[in-house]
Design goal:
binds aspartic acid, four-stranded parallel sheet, eight-stranded mixed sheet, single chain, alpha/beta, elongated, 9 helices
Length: 340
């Protein structure tokens, strides 16, 4: 009997457009993705593909229904099967893909195999779709290319997961990493930017048990209702806040009540992280007078992290590190390529 030395890839199917079918209410995720995929691959050049197996999740979701427990379930499955495969592909809806890819990067620190998260804007069942190419290319990267990172692959772009953002609702080039270069691009050839790709580490994996209500995202906007913000900051379940500020980290400092609320929250031990609502750039507290008091207040600069990375990182730390000083410290450290 011939033995195969082909790499083995495990595909996790969690839902998303890639596996959806039309229903009277609109697209819904459906089971049976593996047989559909094998049928589509029947006449393809299998030699170029790694061997693969597919696990279909019981809870198949439109990713706008994502719960933090789904992050734990994906990580658990990857950790459980880690030794048996050479690489992994996670099929996920695009709406919250950047959140999940970020969360996975913090749960799978010290990764030494590829974990490629992908999906599509058009389902695989449709005649014209981006699903097959996104999936086949992700499988090839996961099986044959040394990318020991959680990445998003989409429409020819290989992006670091915790630097990625969904930037288009309907375009097939739905993902980008506006604040960090692509790790690679795939056209006729695979071009990987080796100098940007992280070195293989020593796995220190942890499927985290998150506390859903621990972190709040707070976009700053003109005339925001201070009383409501104050209530949210005072809420017992709020342990951390991702403040999405203007430009290089500016806040409406003339709103004394708002600034007092922030100061009270940090005094109460809550972790406030300042990130920019701009797609590109960095938080530099103190550049303008409007952000000069933030260090004093105890608000921490989130540097150039994406909102998705900052949110999932703070969740991960609050769930695993009890000392808040340590949480603050580690929020400012680059744990797995999420910030410079
Ligand atoms: N609503 C879908 C989802 O996130 C969108 C997609 O997958 O493209 O599951």
């Amino acid at each position: 009997m011939q033995t195969t030395s082909k790499p083995r890839v495990l595909i996790l199917y969690t839902g998303g457009t890639i596996g959806m079918r039309p229903s009277p209410e609109g697209y819904i995720p459906v089971a049976g993705f593996e047989s559909l995929l094998r049928q589509k691959l029947e006449n393809s050049a299998h030699d170029a593909l790694p061997e693969f197996e597919l696990i279909e999740f019981d809870r198949l979701i439109d990713s706008s229904n994502l719960m933090l427990s789904d992050w734990s379930a994906i990580a658990e499955s990857l950790i459980q099967h880690y030794d048996q495969y050479d690489g992994f592909v996670v099929l996920h809806g695009t709406d919250t893909m950047a959140y999940s890819a970020s969360a996975l990067s913090f749960q799978l620190q010290g990764l030494n195999k590829p974990v490629i998260v992908t999906g599509s804007q058009i389902p695989l069942v449709e005649l014209r779709n981006d699903a097959l190419d996104n999936l086949i290319t992700s499988m090839i990267i996961a099986g044959f290319h040394p990318v020991p990172e959680v990445c998003i692959y989409f429409n020819g772009r290989l992006l670091r997961g915790n630097r990625s953002r969904k930037v288009k609702a309907t375009g097939l080039d739905a993902f980008n990493s506006p604040n960090f270069p692509w790790l690679g691009q795939v056209g006729i050839h695979f071009e990987l930017h080796k100098s940007l790709i992280r070195n293989a580490g020593n796995p220190e994996f942890q499927a985290i048990n998150y506390r859903d209500e621990a972190v709040v995202m707070l976009p700053i906007y003109p005339g925001m209702p201070t009383t409501l913000v104050d209530q949210m900051l005072r809420a017992e379940q709020t342990a951390g806040v991702i403040v999405q500020s203007y430009g290089v980290g500016n806040l409406p400092d003339s709103n004394r009540a708002l600034m007092k609320s922030f100061a009270r929250a940090t005094e109460a031990g809550k972790v406030l992280i300042n990130i920019s609502s701009c797609l590109q750039g960095d938080v530099l507290q103190g550049t303008y007078a409007t952000s000069s008091a933030l260090d004093e207040i105890g608000m921490i600069s989130g540097g150039n992290m994406t909102p998705e990375a900052a949110f999932s990182k703070l969740h991960s730390l609050l769930a695993t590190v009890s000392d808040r000083t340590q949480v603050r410290l580690r929020m400012q450290q680059n744990l797995c390529g999420e910030m410079d």
